[in-house]
Amino acid sequence: MSDGPRDASRNGAGSPDGPPDGRLHAGSGRADDARPGDGTAPPRLRPRPLERPATDPAERRAFGRPDGVGSGFARPTGTGPRAASPTSAAPPPTAAVARAFGRPDTGTGLQRPPDGRAHDPAAGGPDDSDPFWPGGSAEDPWRNPGAPVVAAPPAGHTDDAPEPERPEGPRLSMREVLFGNRVQPRALALLGVLAIGVGALGGLVGHWTAAGADTLTSPGAVLAGAEEAKERPPGSVPEVAGRVLPSVVSLEVTVGNQAGNGSGVVIDPEGYVLTNDHVVAPAVGPGQGTIEAVFSDGSRVPASVVGADPMTDLAVVKVPVANPTVAAIGRSADLAVGDAVIAIGSPFGLAGTVTTGIVSAVERPLRLDPEGSAGDAVIDAVQTDAAINPGNSGGPLVDATGAVVGINTAIRSASAEGGGGQGGSIGLGFAIPVDDARAIAEELIRTGRIAHADLGVNARSVTDGATDGAQVQNVVAGGPAAAAGIVEGDVVVRLAGRAISGADELVVAVREHRPGEQVPVELVRQGRPLTVAATLGQR
């Protein structure tokens, strides 16, 4: 190779030194075989000719150029050296296509005139306005890369012109609205006068009617005012009765062809009902009778006697009821004279009867009538003036909170005092204190029987005008009183701190203690006080 630059005219296909066809002949060797000193340039390599395989005539007709077209460009139109191309021009567009997509008939094309100014053929001279960009091409946001982005309304959006205000038309009169302009003004006036007359006549008739009604009553009569009903607060009689009544049952005892009734109160969730012994005594024993319990909702179930204590006139029966309403048990020791109480029961078979009263006395010794009971019962009663009648026996005496404080047991009536038979309530009712009744009921449920303490004496009530007591009439041989040294004629005035005012109070004072318990007994023997210790026995 030469050291200087190579002449470009010697490297082309038209180089005079190269082969005529631009290819190396066989046996000529490589292009760099020429020697640098012979004054000839090396021949240039050329690409091999393209091998064009034969095409299918069908594919040529489908994908080949039209006949007479030898290149990928359309046949030029007009005059010139390319006008002789065998390609054919597209047919001219239809009139509708030309109107829709053709250029506007302004005489100008899409390109700017050569002098940079738009030409207005109508004016015959140049136009200073820019036909492409209002305000000049410098203000065109598409040509200015620093122009801000501005939101534009949707294509074809135009602001709706405000609707013009409609002129106000003539107003209709009332006559036109109501009657469609078919009634004369005189008729409307007459109709108004008639309406006023009818109204005045109705007012007069109403006034005369009211005045005539007033004459039915005495002139000047004053009616008593009535207040609206008040709510039943907690602790009122209706509220307490509503809570206690579901736990009170009516006991119907049938013996042969005879029937009797009493009351009872549920004291245990197992279905134990506390009542009086004289209520269920006729039905005690095999084949003697039946007992049926009736609840406040009217349901009836059979009842069976669990245990009875004739000495205190208490008994417990059981009813087969699941989850019965149980009464709340209070404390009779907390009662004071004057406390409000409520008696609930079934007097004369009238179930769910409620009467009210107060506590008239407490610790009132009372010997009950033995009729209807298996023993001569003595109780330390709570006296009340609440109305208690036959059939209330065994029902609860409750306090103002609804807690049971006693079991209604007996009454005293004027007819009974005069020997006239069974009488009604005169405000002297007696109930067994619930403190005593609860202890006896628990023992009856556990064992079916109960044992009472006994002093072993028979006594009668005496007084000397200054001191009351129980005079011993006889002493049981080998009994607790004999062992303590008590003899006939002694007057017991106090037992274990409780004053004894009579024979019945001596009985209830002894039963307040348990068998085997030692108690002090204060006596008056031949006018002299004496105190002995006695160990109570069992009865």
Describe the protein's architecture and organization.
By secondary structure, this protein is α+β, with helices and mostly antiparallel strands. Among the domains are: 1-42, no CATH class; 237-447, Beta Barrel (Thrombin, subunit H); 453-538, Pdz3 Domain, CATH 2.30.42. 17% of the residues lie in helices and 25% in strands. The protein has ten helices and 22 strands. It has helices at 57-63, 95-101, 174-179, 185-214, 237-244, 277-280, 414-417, 434-447, 480-484, 503-511; strands at residues 118-120, 125-127, 248-255, 258-266, 272-275, 290-294, 300-309, 314-318, 340-345, 353-367, 378-384, 396-399, 404-411, 429-433, 453-454, 457-463, 468-475, 491-495, 498-499, 518-525, 528-535, 537-538. The strands form five sheets. A six-stranded antiparallel β-barrel has the order 3-4-5-8-7-6. It has a six-stranded antiparallel barrel with strand order 9-10-11-14-13-12. Strands 16, 17, 18, 19, 20 and 21 form a six-stranded antiparallel sheet that branches. A hairpin with a 2-residue loop joins strand 18 and strand 19. The protein starts with 56 loop residues before the first helix and ends with a strand. The model is unreliable at 1-37 and 123-128 (pLDDT under 50).
Quick synopsis:
The protein has 539 residues and is α+β, with helices and mostly antiparallel strands.
Record keyword descriptors for this entry.
disordered N terminus, 6-stranded antiparallel β-barrel, alpha+beta, 10 helices, Pdz3 Domain, 25% strand, 539 residues, Thrombin, subunit H
CATH architecture of the domain at 237-447: Beta Barrel
Rg, alpha carbons: 67 Å
| CATH hierarchy, class of the domain at 237-447 | Mainly Beta
> What is the CATH topology of the domain at 237-447?
Thrombin, subunit H
Beta-strand segment tally: 22
* Overall shape: elongated
Unreliable stretches, pLDDT < 50, 5 or more residues?
1-37, 123-128
| Spatial order of the strands forming the largest sheet | 3-4-5-8-7-6
Bin the strand percentage: 15-25%
Q: What structural class do you assign from the helix and strand content?
A: alpha+beta
**What average pLDDT do the residues reach?**
78
Helix content: 10-25%
Distance linking N and C termini: 159 Å
Largest beta-sheet details:
6 strands, antiparallel, barrel
User: DSSP helix count?
Assistant: 10
